[in-house]
Amino acid sequence: MNIKSLSQKVSALGFCLLTLSQAVIAATLETSVKVIELTPQKLEVVKEYIGHLDPLERVTIRSEASGAIEKINFEKGQLVKKGQELVHISTERLALNVEKSKSNYNLAKTNYNTQKALAAKNISLRKAELNLAQSKTDLLLAETEYAKEQKLMEKKYTTESNLDTKKNALETRKISLDKAKIELDQVRIQTDQITLQSYLNNMEVEKVNLDLAILDFDKSKVKAPFSGIIKSKSVQIGGYVSAGESLLEMMDISKVLATVNIPEKDVRFVKVGQKAKVVLDAFPGKIFTGTVKTLGLEADTSSRSFPVEVVIDNKEGSLLPGMMSRAALQTISVDNQILIPAHAVLEKNDGKVVFVEQGGKAIEKKVVVGVTVENSVQVMDGLNPGDKLIISGHQFLSDNQKINVIGTSKQYVVTTCGKECLFTEI
Question: Looking at residues 2-8, what average pLDDT do you find?
Fold first, then answer.
């Protein structure tokens, strides 16, 4: 064995002895630590989403009739009521068409009523109808008599001859009924019943034509579909418009919608009817309260986010479409949670760990963490209420190492809200 090799072995042995001695010293020395006793906490996470304001309703009103503009009863920016007439298109031809249709309908109605009265006075028709009614009555009576005779025959209270007589009478009544039906049909053909039906059909056709004419006339008077404000005007008096051409655009801003996009990881926490706080750059320091009105059912393919609309009252009309908005929505609210300072969690090769004090020693515990809220972290598994968590001096501890507790405090019960909770509690 040469001197160089011997020297290397001595050095290695010396290093091992030094490491062992340090570990022994560390195990015997008591590290000073501070601990807190864990208590159940309430966890709330409120996140902020950026968006803009939209009107509650917006509509572009188009003409359903062609013609010249006779009247315009609004100006840009004017408030209008539901049902208020906004535009009047030339109606001279349409008005004449209504009058013509009324005349045609009234004439058809008069002709029908006259023909109906004449048909009612037709004696032959009336006689045939009465004959049919009598034949039905006679048949019913014959059926009754025959049924009685059958029962008597079953009890031997009558003869075969009497039964045959009743049966023949029944057959005779059936033949009489058939003849009465044929006679009535012949009389109807000979009377004006077919003509009467023709008059009725004509009257109904003219009534439809009148309704269509009135509908076209009404379309020439463009009315507001809801109460709102006129955003833009596309026509002038005297101008000609075709059916389908844009006349104006109006909005309902009695309420406005703060439209924001929610990431897919948060959308499951948002519900329709949920309260929200909204702030606007146009009104620094002012907080508006709203309610989730709609929740998109499909994510945007590029951003993987879902559109959400928060409706806000706007009685004063100061909130205008297009304004930038920030909506605060509560995504998590749970009680009885274990929340610890984030710095108390240490990263090791096999996962996250913390140290708790038990019997004057530091005990290492593996933990499963959830959400991080500001300087606190949610512990899903590994700790329980009452555990004494080491929050200071834990960085260099090892499992089962003796410790000196220089400070103990009990965790206060508070509501932990994320740093995104900008506008006070929801």
Answer: 54
